[in-house]
Design brief:
Layout: H1 3-21, H2 28-34, H3 37-53, H4 60-84, H5 86-91, H6 107-128, H7 131-155, H8 159-168, H9 170-179, H10 184-207, H11 209-215, H12 220-224, H13 226-249, H14 255-277, H15 283-310, H16 321-324
Helix pairs in contact: 3-4, 3-9, 3-15, 4-6, 4-7, 4-9, 6-7, 7-8, 7-9, 8-10, 9-10, 10-13, 10-15, 13-14, 14-15
């Protein structure tokens, strides 16, 4: 082989090595995007509610550090998700400009970033607060990154149903940070988010169905069709409405929360019914309306709990206490 041909073979390889060795051109904003800040904000908010409404008291500085650890843990889960799902993100319009498919962050960088964030958040939460809260945070990160992202999302149309548990744990983590335990109240908050997740994300999947199909993600409307998806949204909304009211029914919230939850749950059911009955040509705007209202519903419910706590609400006892006594 001539020296010329050897040089022809070697140069491209060297160029590839040099390209690989070049420092990342990612901006701090790209690393923030890896942490899914919108999802993180919801996680922090629901964790804050669990932390504040729990019986007992946590020093404000410790509460702040607990929320920082929970936020960082949520960011780690987001980074793991974007690392593993880069192939899916690249073919979906709403995710194609994320840092990895856009080429601004290398997959290995995102993975290392997630590992550092996860390690920091879990260890510091355990050392500063307690190890039950840290264990729940570690399990949440694992559940979202491995159970949901690596397994459920690509293999079953029930991915959102089972995977919704990952997004439902933050109030329990906040509760455990304050009390060192897990109470029935925190389980109710978990169930509200758990049953809220399917109608919320299936509404999104109805008007993003073509993108999920192109990416090979077996979302319910892709696998079972629009009619079945709309029926399932209605069923889950019917279950969600009474669960949303249950903290008041069981005496863990006041009448203000009870009225808010009842009205919000009724609105979710009405919109789900309208979506179920809508003709195919009018389905998309109704699905978008339900998707938007569902975000507002969850925020208002948890905000009502915070407001009641700020107004000094204590456990009044179940409204049915006289009947049950």
């Amino acid at each position: 082989m001539s020296l010329v041909s050897e040089r022809t073979d070697i140069v491209p390889a060297l160029q590839r090595e040099v390209a690989y060795a070049e420092p990342s051109m990612a901006s701090p904003g790209d690393y923030l995007a890896l942490m899914k800040p919108r999802v993180m904000s919801l996680v922090v908010f629901t964790a804050l509610v669990g932390l504040v409404v729990a019986p007992g008291h946590l020093h404000p500085m410790l509460a702040f550090f607990a929320l920082v650890c929970i936020a960082v843990g949520a960011g780690a889960a987001g980074a793991f998700n974007m690392w593993y799902d880069a192939d899916i993100d690249a073919v979906m319009e709403r995710t194609s400009d994320r840092p990895i498919p856009a080429g601004r962050v290398q997959p290995g960088e995102a993975l290392a970033f997630g590992v550092v964030l996860a390690s920091f958040s879990v260890v510091f939460l355990g050392l500063i607060i307690n190890w039950l809260a840290a264990g729940l945070l570690a399990f949440t990160i694992f559940f979202y990154a491995v159970i949901y992202t690596m397994w459920l999302k690509r293999w079953t149309p029930q991915n959102i149903v089972i995977g919704g548990a990952a997004g439902a744990f933050p109030p329990m983590i906040g509760w455990a940070a304050t009390t060192g335990g897990i109470g029935l109240e925190s389980i109710l908050l978990f169930l509200i988010i758990f049953f809220w997740t399917p109608p919320h994300f299936w509404a999104l999947s109805l008007f993003r169905m073509d993108e999920y199909a192109r990416a090979g993600v077996p979302m319910l409307p892709v696998v079972s069709g629009e009619s079945e998806t709309r029926w399932q949204i209605l069923l889950y909304s019917l279950v969600l409405a009474p669960i949303g009211v249950s903290p008041w029914l069981l005496g863990y919230a006041g009448i203000g929360y009870g009225a808010t939850a009842a009205l919000g749950g009724a609105l979710m059911v009405v919109l789900a019914w309208q979506l179920y009955r809508a003709p195919a040509s009018a389905m998309e705007p109704v699905a978008k309306r339900l998707f938007g209202i569902s975000i507002l519903y969850l925020f208002v419910l948890f905000a009502a709990l915070l407001i009641e706590r700020g107004l000094g609400f204590q456990h009044f006892g179940t409204p049915f206490g006289l009947v049950l006594a």
